[in-house]
Amino acid sequence: MNVAIRKKVHHFNIPGQAHELTFSCYRRLPLLSRDRTRRWLIESIENARKTQEYALLAFVIMPEHVHIIVYPFDQTYDVAWFLKSIKQSVSKNAHARLRKHDQK
């Protein structure tokens, strides 16, 4: 029986520190191999950066995962919330596109 073990990620909100964030696509599928999807991701990163007041120091988009280095301007912040807002936005775009083109 093949049972996937899910890693538990811990984010530490330490004021004055840059954060390196890494996340993978669903089942590590190469979902970021298209320009459209990468554009959604870049727009989502930019929106989260502006609304939550982070500096974007660097990012790398690979076909199945992403690395981002950010620096929060506020002393009180939540890295997990920042990451969630990025991922949810891209997910909503992808689901909307699938519904529009009647793919399930």
Short key terms for the protein model shown above:
alpha+beta; 104 residues; 2 helices; three-stranded antiparallel β-sheet
Give a brief outline of the structure:
The protein has helices spanning 35-52, 79-100, and strands at residues 19-24, 54-61, 65-72. The chain is of the alpha+beta class. Strands 1-3-2 form a three-stranded antiparallel beta sheet, covered by helices on one side.
Structure, described:
By secondary structure, the chain is of the alpha+beta class. Helices cover 38% and strands 21% of the residues. The protein has helices at 35-52, 79-100; strands at 19-24, 54-61, 65-72. The chain has a 3-stranded antiparallel β-sheet, with helices on one face. A hairpin with a 3-residue loop joins strand 2 and strand 3. 12% of the residues are buried. The mean pLDDT is 90.
Task: Summarize the SSE layout with pairings.
Layout (H helix, E strand, L loop, with lengths): L18 E6 L10 H18 L1 E8 L3 E8 L6 H22 L4
Antiparallel strand pairs: 1-3, 2-3
Helix pairs in contact: 1-2
Mean pLDDT: 90
Unreliable stretches covering 5 or more consecutive residues: none
Portion in strands: 15-25%
Largest sheet: 3 strands, antiparallel
| Helical content (DSSP H or I, runs of 4+) | 25-40%
Q: What Rg, in angstroms, do the CA atoms define? A: 15 Å
- How many helices in DSSP terms? 2
Please provide the count of β strands. 3
Spatial strand order of the main sheet: 1-3-2
The dominant shape is globular
Element-level helix/strand string: EHEEH
**SSE class:** alpha+beta
